């Protein structure tokens, strides 16, 4: 008997921290095409955990702009801010398994401990500056008794990564990828002292619990993928497939960012551009 083919479940995961631009549109359009080609389901996850940059009007704008572009997804949309108990439950599991540790160091402490010049703090190709590699001397011993998790959480918690282990995956577009834990990235934040989950934890929990079979997103997130694979493993879940799209750049070769308002879908629409023309250029 041949195995039943897995039903494809993809997701669009915009962040409501600005207006969507042409680069987002292309990535989301590719995600929608891949879901459609597989006869699958496409979910929309509203990544609304960034309390500082979040704006309700950006949620409405991103949904409207994606609909204008012709994208459709399964309703209702999923808001990360409604899933906090799920993330907290995952944190408790990581804690019970001894996979995390509390961290009282500041970002300054971490940067001071790293000898310059260090590759770790340098931006990856096309990416935002990455979280610096957490100095190994700051880790508590592996057999140290963990303090309990408090409610609310009042200190940072980090995942203890398997130092020296190569984490690998084959990207559906970019091919084989690998990174060494403890060298290319270090013990990373899973929960912040302001009692909020990190993007890495929330994303890994969602991808596992929503049954996502393929994650399509920008290739600035490849470094996050290694971390999320480790988190999924620590939570006993199988990682989805990954397909990272190249980021779009402007005429000067700079990666498009939300500050490129002239290339926002909204501005293009106001200039009379039609969605089909925009898509034809992807
Ligand atoms: N919301 C994230 C972003 O816009 C994407 C997260 C993801 O696709 O995993 O960068």
What does this protein look like?
The chain is of the alpha/beta class and 282 residues long. Helices cover 30% and strands 18% of the residues. It contains eight helices and eleven strands. The strands form four sheets. The protein has a four-stranded antiparallel beta sheet. Helix 6 links the parallel strand 10 and strand 11. Helix 5 crosses helix 6. The longest helix has 16 residues. The chain is globular. The termini are far apart. The site of glutamic acid (GLU) has 7 residues, from loops.
Helices and strands in order:
Elements: E1 9-12, H1 22-37, E2 41-46, H2 56-68, E3 74-79, H3 84-96, E4 100-103, H4 107-113, E5 156-159, E6 166-171, E7 175-180, E8 189-192, E9 196-197, H5 199-209, E10 214-218, H6 222-234, E11 241-245, H7 265-270, H8 275-280
Parallel strand pairs: 1-2, 2-3, 10-11
Antiparallel strand pairs: 4-5, 5-8, 6-7, 8-9
Helix pairs in contact: 5-6
Features:
binds glutamic acid, four-stranded antiparallel sheet, alpha/beta, 282 residues, 30% helix, 8 helices, 18% strand
Q: Biggest sheet, strands in spatial order?
A: 4-5-8-9
Give helix and strand order, one letter per element, not per position. Answer: EHEHEHEHEEEEEHEHEHH
The N- and C-terminal alpha carbons lie at a distance of 40 Å
Overall average pLDDT: 92
Which molecules are bound besides the chains?
glutamic acid
Structural class: alpha/beta
Q: How can the largest sheet be summarized?
A: 4 strands, antiparallel
Work out the helix count. Answer: 8
Shape designation = globular
Helix content range of the residues, please?
25-40%
Rg result: 20 Å
Got a strand count? Answer: 11
- Beta fraction of the residues? 15-25%
Task: Pick out the low-confidence regions.
Answer: 117-128
